[in-house]
Automatic annotation (TrEMBL):
Signal peptide: none annotated. It comes from Caloranaerobacter azorensis. One of its GO terms (cellular component) is membrane. The keyword Membrane applies. The chain crosses the membrane at residues 299-321, 341-359, 366-385, 391-410, 422-450. This is Spore germination protein. Keywords: Membrane, Transmembrane, Transmembrane helix. It comes from the Bacteria.
Length: 506
């Protein structure tokens, strides 16, 4: 178990002692602002402490300092009341801030200062008032770059937790939407919020999520990926067991299905659990289009997933082991294009696949226009040059191009990356055993996926356990009309199963 960074520091009645202790803990922190002042004719001593840049200074100036230093003069309480109840008078009558709270240790006060709040110290009182005054710069709401849609909301999560919870609350105007806050990270103390709908989400699922989050023992949480890796069931698997998204509408839809969302401060990516391979291959846009169009797109997406996973391996197996499976004219053409290529098909495929991955990575790390140019021009130039140099065959360039295009149709980046990783393994099996090797690799992958779980939910739902999740097939490979999907997905074992009801049930 990790040891605590510091012992609890008690609050003294002397304001100078408290300020001295705070300055010792925050030594060499030049962005900390200390402001001491007096109030009233009796000159009661006060002090505020905040971080410059994290706090709304106008709010503190207008609604704390001005209220205490000027407007307090207009009050005429009994002198004995002021002397005996100064702290309560200040907290309840002189600070025009909507959110106040108290702490009883300097450790808690310092943590709040570093989180962007302002602390107010009152002389001769062993409590500190926390003034809600967070005011750091916030990025504007823009459309998510990784999950663009033609039809659907254009707002996306930002790096501020409060804004993100507001975006979800705006879509779920239900008193049963619960938001539980906690902090993770011994040093970073990152704010984390767990969201669920109380009478829909299964309590065991919610308790399991909170349990796994509280079990995290780490110094720093800078992004949701850290938490994702700590709470997933099988960290050795190439397939993600936690969904991440930048779209508030996707999070709201998941909550309505009885799933649990995790929002983390300082990142625009939310985590959603549990997850299945079916949900990872779905897009938010599927639910905004008519069922015929959505079903057609989903079928194309599943076909593209198979192409992205198997096409290079099938080419390797057919050219190396089973050329007789091809029509005569096509077999002769493939043999002619490979004439003069010095490498076997597996080496040829690896050369092109690695080249495409390098271009993909380079395009992602560069700015938008430059990255697009690198991807297009690089692919054309390198592919043409490789063919003319006799390093690869024209057919292999076509195969790799189709594979790359197909991989971009997968909505989730994480599952697409898992397919890309597995694809290399299948290519090796196909080079060793041909089509038998592909079948063996698919068998191994299938066994792994069937055994894989996400927070107790089978990863292959609803394609397994038909007795429990057969109705979920209405929203799997194809999407049935919304009028027929009267029940929520069963894989989460929700409490409130009805999604569409009659007027008499309302």
């Amino acid at each position: 178990m990790l040891r605590e960074r510091e012992n609890s520091i008690s609050i003294s009645k002397d304001i100078n002692t408290n300020l001295k202790k705070i300055k010792e803990v925050l030594k060499d922190c030049d962005d900390i602002v200390y402001r001491e002042f007096t109030v009233g004719e009796r000159r009661f001593k006060f002090a505020i402490v905040y971080v410059d840049g994290l706090t709304d200074k106008i709010l503190v100036s207008d609604y704390v300092l001005e209220s205490l230093m000027h407007q307090a003069r207009g009050l005429e309480p009994n002198p004995n009341s002021v002397k005996n109840n100064l702290y309560e008078l200040v907290k309840n009558r002189n600070i025009a801030i909507t959110e106040l709270k108290e702490v009883e240790t300097l450790n808690e006060a310092i943590d709040n200062v570093l989180a962007g709040e302002t602390i107010l110290l009152v002389n001769r009182y062993q409590k500190i008032i926390i003034v809600s005054s967070r005011g750091w710069p916030v990025r504007g709401l823009n459309e998510p770059q990784t999950e663009t849609v033609i039809r659907g909301p254009r707002d996306g999560f930002v790096e501020t937790l409060k804004v993100n919870t507001t975006l979800v609350r705006r879509r779920i105007r239900d008193s049963k939407l619960k938001i539980k806050n906690m902090q993770i990270g011994r040093r970073s103390k990152t704010d984390v919020a767990v969201l669920y709908i109380e009478d829909v989400a299964n309590k065991e699922l919610v308790d399991e999520v909170i349990k796994r989050l509280k079990a995290i023992r780490v110094d720093v949480v800078l992004e949701s990926g850290t938490i994702e890796q700590f709470i997933e069931d099988n960290w050795m698997s190439p397939f993600p067991q936690v969904e991440n998204t930048e779209r508030p509408d996707a999070v709201a839809a998941a909550l309505y299905e009885g799933r649990v969302a995790i929002l983390i401060d300082n990142t625009p990516f939310a985590l959603v659990v549990p997850v299945t391979i079916s949900t990872l291959l779905q897009s938010s846009e599927d639910y905004y289009e008519r069922w015929i169009i959505a079903s057609l797109i989903r079928v194309l997406r599943y076909i593209a997933s198979l192409i992205a996973l198997l096409l290079p391996s099938i080419y390797i197996a057919v050219t190396a082991y089973h050329p007789g499976m091809l029509p005569t004219q096509l077999a002769l053409y493939v043999a002619a294009t490979r004439e003069g290529v010095p490498f076997p098909a597996i080496i040829e495929a690896f050369i092109m696949e690695v080249t495409i991955e390098l271009l993909r990575e380079a395009g992602m790390r560069l700015s938008g226009p430059i990255g697009t140019t690198i991807g297009i021009v690089g692919g054309l130039v390198i592919g043409q040059a490789a063919v003319e140099a006799g390093i690869v065959s024209p057919m292999m360039v076509i195969i790799v191009a189709l594979t790359t295009i197909a991989s971009f149709t997968i909505p989730s980046y994480n599952i697409a990356a898992g397919f890309r990783f597995v694809r290399f393994g299948i290519m090796i099996f196909s080079a060793l055993l041909g089509l038998y090797g592909i079948m063996l690799a698919l068998l191994i992958i299938g066994i792994h996926l069937v055994r894989l779980e996400s927070f107790g939910v089978p990863y292959m739902s609803p394609y397994v356990s038909f007795s429990e999740t057969y109705s979920d097939l209405k929203d799997s490979v194809v999407k049935m009309p919304i009028q027929t999907m009267k029940k929520r997905p069963r894989f989460t074992n929700v409490y409130d199963k009805d999604r569409i009801f009659s007027d008499s049930e309302e």
